[in-house]
Amino acid sequence: MLKVGVLGAGHLGKIHLRLLNESKKYSLVGFHDTNKEHALAVEKEFGYRYVENYADLLKEVDVIDIVTPTTNHFIMAEQAIKANVHVFIEKPITSTVEEAENLIQLAKEHHVKGQVGHVERFNPAFRAAIPKINNPMFIESHRLAEFNPRGTDVPVVLDLMIHDIDAILSVVKSKVKHINASGVSIISETPDIANARIQFENGCVANLTASRISLKNMRKSRFFQRDAYVSVDFLEKVTEVVKMKDAPKEPDDFAMILQNAEGVKKQIYFDNPDIQTNNAILDELETFATAIEKDTTPIVTLEQGTEALRVAIQIIKAFDNQ
């Protein structure tokens, strides 16, 4: 078992602590939080060991799980890597692309592994969809959330949209060519609603919308490709696949047939995959342990987390041109 420590005992940090404490791949050594009063309260309530000095915690662990505000990610990950400790970093990887690129270089120099917490990659609905997604040419994503003061210190792009940016970059095997975007601040100092249109070099277009002041929650992405449509509901954990094939000469009475202007007939059928339920956060943490143990590439690498951040920042910069 890998010895692990957690940095940050806020809302998400406490979830990570509980899951790591239950995991069969990790031995939870303890946690550090800069708010000592809060940390002692967490220690008293849950029994997790509080380590007052971060440097002391690093001396005891193989892996550090960084679940702090993004502004602290770089300095904390830098210290861990220089101590030859593997790093799991919640998304977004860092505040700037330059910081992220520095972490990539440091990790290579110190031969440690890093993974970024883009948890939607481990969502069972998205996992089930991956084998069905093949060269999508139009993608539409909506990520809407009811207002929560947590996270409003950063634009909605870094708070919510970055989930979909990473998921889309993982299935579109092409470089970003151009980005148009607009954002509106309603209640926060930074945009609460944003829309981005990403054009890729291979012709694919992705249209993303994110809001953190909606009346209901929604997390849906739809992938359109040749003869197929794949819908992923990240919230309800449902995947729907609609495919088309050449219609038989004598279709049965219940077949759904479409005919285009040229007279070509296509039959519509459904190919919905089974959804294997899981705990996505536990999965992302345990697959990182497996990558360390087997010396394989983590599922969400530091490089991939950096690319998601790069696109997110390009979207934010595009707001200035609206």
TrEMBL record:
One of its GO terms (molecular function) is nucleotide binding. InterPro entries: Gfo/Idh/MocA-like_OxRdtase_N, Gfo/Idh/MocA_Oxidoreductases, NAD(P)-bd_dom_sf. Residues 2-118 form the Gfo/Idh/MocA-like oxidoreductase N-terminal domain. Pfam families: GFO_IDH_MocA. It comes from the Bacteria. PANTHER family: BILIVERDIN REDUCTASE A. This is Predicted dehydrogenase. It comes from Psychroflexus sediminis.
